[in-house]
Every structure is written in structure tokens, then in C-alpha cells.
Write a structure and sequence with these properties.
Low-confidence stretches: 38-52, 229-293
Strand content: 15-25%
Number of helices: 13
Mean pLDDT: 77
Number of strands: 15
Shape: globular
CATH superfamily of the largest domain: P-loop containing nucleotide triphosphate hydrolases
Largest sheet: 9 strands, mixed
CATH topology of the largest domain: Rossmann fold
Strand order of the largest sheet: 3-4-5-2-6-1-7-8-9
Length: 384
């Protein structure tokens, strides 16, 4: 199975620098083919295969670099058959539409043993607002179809610029993970986990909550087994379905993997094979995820907003001491401190803890509970 990651971004966003970082830090042990479509920004030497329209050279730790001209789909087949790589990185032209490249890869999924893995868009944090206005159709398409947006030059942006940029991106695509931490402060491994959907805070908390509910349900079922065997067995199964499909539903919401691909196979391959631990099946998923909020709801946000320890502690106190925001069963997050360090927090009913942690890819918040007032939570965390 060859993974295919598309690394898009407007001209000058920093795609090539980002790709080099990933090649140096995470893809060393993999057989990689980098494909540049049209106006590639990396200089290419080597023989030109005129018939195939493929130009090939060695680049960066044995990575094979191809420039495709002409029939992109046909040439992609030839690259796969010739090199059998572990991973293909496609760097489209800076003015190409991400949706077009994505559709070409989806067509190839039907014929080759490949999987569309990550849809990444690199965005210059300092220029995003202007480019959105000036090149709307192309720029917005790259954001709308991304599963992960990586901000470049975020270290040079003011906190206000960064927050405004993130809000603009979230308005176009509320489901994409947005990496706001400066590239020097974050490892390639962390970035890859985000791209491959393995680092969803919301998904992890929902899975934990589901496990707790299931354990409690099992205990209840065990105690009442002799008395009402059939009835409780039915209830347990029903709740199990509700919980696990809530987990799957939120995973979709968070990572945008369903994304109007018009490609059910890809969607479910992504959701269930690679990242999802819920063990559910497609027909069950379609049938049951609307039960999700009958069990519990989750509120998850990503933000570059900076906080003080006192502010986070006040928030957690209010969760443990009152029901003003709903019945909070779990709250967890990692956010940047105003002094530049990172605050990690975790809260369960009756207790909470704060600690220092490593920089994350952006500030992340997740609250799970019953009857959550989402608007009040946004106000509480100063996100409105």
C-alpha cells in the first residue's frame, strides 16, 4: 500500500521548505517519491523521459523527485509501477486547485494499491488575508479541501494577526487541523500524527469516555444479569452502538475526512481502517450516528490564543464547582502561556491538574459532558 499525501499551498507559502523538513525528520526510512506538477519550485536535473512526460532526479536522502507534464493520471500510474514507493508526496502548482489533484488521486485509488492519506495546505500566516481576497477561488479551494493546514512564518505574526488568520481559515473549513506553532518548535513526527489523523484530542477523550460508560454499563448488566437478562443485554448493545458511533461521528467532524470526496470507499477506509478504533461498520455508522447527542456531547476548539495559568485554573474551578456550562464530565487541553511556555490541563468531576508541557501544533481545547452550553464555553475561553 502506497500512501499519497498532497502538499498544496499558494506560490511562496513555503511548501518546498515544509517538504524538506518532513523528508529530513520523518521520512528517512521510507521509499519516497516527490511529484511536482507543473510550476515546481525545486530545480530538477536529470534525463527527461519524453514519452512519459516524466523528469526524474535524486533528491534529499534518496527521495526520488519527478516532474510530471501532460497527462497527470497516466504519469502517476507509471511512477507507481516503476518505483513502488512507500509514500508519494505530490506538490501541485501554487495556483492549482487542491480538489482537482485530489480527484485525480481518487481515480487512481480504484486501479492501484494506493491510499489518499493527507490533504495538506501550507499557508503564509502573514499574507493569508490578502491572498484570500486577491486569489479567492484558488486560495480558498486549497483551504476548503485540506484536512490539515500548516501555517508558515507564524513566529513573525503578532498574536492578533495569528488569531485573525486562524479564524478566517476556520470560517472556510471548520474541520481542518491548523498547525500554528513555529516549525522550529515542532517536530516532523508531531506534524505527521496530525496529518494522519492520529492526534485528535477530541477522538481520544471520546474513546476514553466511551470506555468508562461501557465499563459502567457492563457492571450494571452483570449485577442485574439473573433478573432481566434479555432486557439488559439489549440495552447494553444499544448504548454501545450509540457511544461508539458518537466517537466515529466526532472523528469525522474533527478531521474532515469525509470532505465531499464523493468517494465512499476512501472515506470509510480513512475512518475505520487507519485511525478509528471503534470497530463499527459502514451501514451501522450511517444508521446510528444521529443518536450521538442522546449520550453525551463534545466541544472541541483549536486556537493560538494565549492564556495565563490563573485563567485556566479559574475555568477548571468553575467546571468542578458548578453546572453553569452543563454537566462537564471531562476537560482537557494544551494551550500556550502568555510567557511563551505551554500549559497542559486535565479535569474530571471533582478534580483537575495543570502542568507544563512541550509546544503542541496549536492550542487545543476539548470539553465533554451533558447539556453543554457551547456559546458560554466560547466566551469563557475568550474565543468570541
Amino acid at each position: 500500500m502506497t500512501k499519497i499525501d498532497i502538499i498544496s499551498g499558494f506560490l511562496g507559502a513555503g511548501k518546498t521548505t515544509f517538504i524538506k523538513k518532513m523528508l529530513d525528520e520523518v521520512f528517512q526510512g521510507e521509499k519516497i517519491v516527490l511529484i511536482e506538477n507543473e510550476f515546481g519550485e525545486v530545480g530538477i536535473d536529470g534525463g527527461f523521459l519524453k514519452d512519459a512526460g516524466i523528469e526524474i532526479t535524486e533528491m534529499n536522502s534518496g527521495c526520488i523527485c519527478c516532474s510530471l507534464v501532460g497527462d497527470f493520471g497516466k504519469n502517476l500510474h507509471e511512477v507507481i509501477d516503476k518505483f513502488h514507493p512507500d509514500r508519494i508526496l505530490i506538490e501541485p502548482s501554487g495556483v492549482g486547485k487542491l480538489s482537482d489533484v485530489m480527484k485525480s488521486v481518487i481515480d487512481i485509488e480504484k486501479e492501484e494499491d494506493v491510499k489518499l492519506n493527507g490533504l495538506v495546505t501550507v499557508v503564509n500566516a502573514l499574507k493569508a488575508s490578502k491572498q484570500m481576497k486577491a486569489f479567492g477561488e484558488f486560495f480558498n479551494n486549497q483551504i476548503e479541501y485540506a484536512t490539515t493546514v500548516v501555517l508558515s512564518r507564524s513566529q513573525n505574526a503578532t498574536p492578533e494577526q495569528l488569531e485573525f488568520c486562524v479564524k478566517q481559515i476556520q470560517a472556510l473549513n471548520p474541520k481542518a487541523a491548523i498547525i500554528t506553532t513555529a516549525w522550529d518548535s515542532i517536530k516532523g513526527e508531531q506534524i505527521l500524527k496530525v496529518i494522519e489523523g492520529q492526534d485528535s484530542l477530541e477522538m481520544k477523550l471520546l474513546a476514553e469516555q466511551h470506555a468508562k460508560e461501557e465499563a459502567a454499563e457492563h457492571e450494571h448488566h452483570h449485577h442485574n444479569h439473573d433478573h432481566e437478562e434479555h432486557e439488559h443485554h439489549h440495552d447494553h448493545d444499544h448504548d454501545h452502538e450509540e457511544h461508539e458511533h458518537h466517537h466515529d461521528y466526532d472523528h469525522e467532524e474533527e478531521h474532515h475526512h469525509d470532505h465531499d470526496h464523493d468517494h465512499e470507499e476512501h472515506e470509510h477506509h480513512h475512518e475505520h481502517d487507519e485511525n478509528c478504533t471503534c470497530g463499527c461498520h459502514d451501514h451501522e455508522h450511517k444508521h446510528h450516528h444521529h443518536h450521538a447527542d442522546e449520550v453525551f456531547t463534545s466541544w472541541g476548539k483549536e486556537t493560538p490564543h494565549k492564556y495565563t495559568r490563573e485563567k485556566i485554573e479559574d475555568i477548571l474551578k468553575s467546571f468542578t464547582e458548578s453546572d453553569d456550562y452543563g454537566e462537564i464530565l471531562r476537560a482537557k487541553g494544551m494551550v500556550e502561556d502568555v510567557n511563551g511556555s505551554w500549559i497542559y490541563f486535565d479535569m474530571v468531576p471533582g478534580e483537575y491538574e495543570l502542568r507544563d508541557g512541550e509546544p503542541d501544533y496549536t492550542g487545543r481545547l476539548c470539553v465533554i459532558g451533558v447539556g453543554i452550553d457551547e456559546h458560554r464555553l466560547e466566551e469563557l475561553f475568550e474565543l468570541v
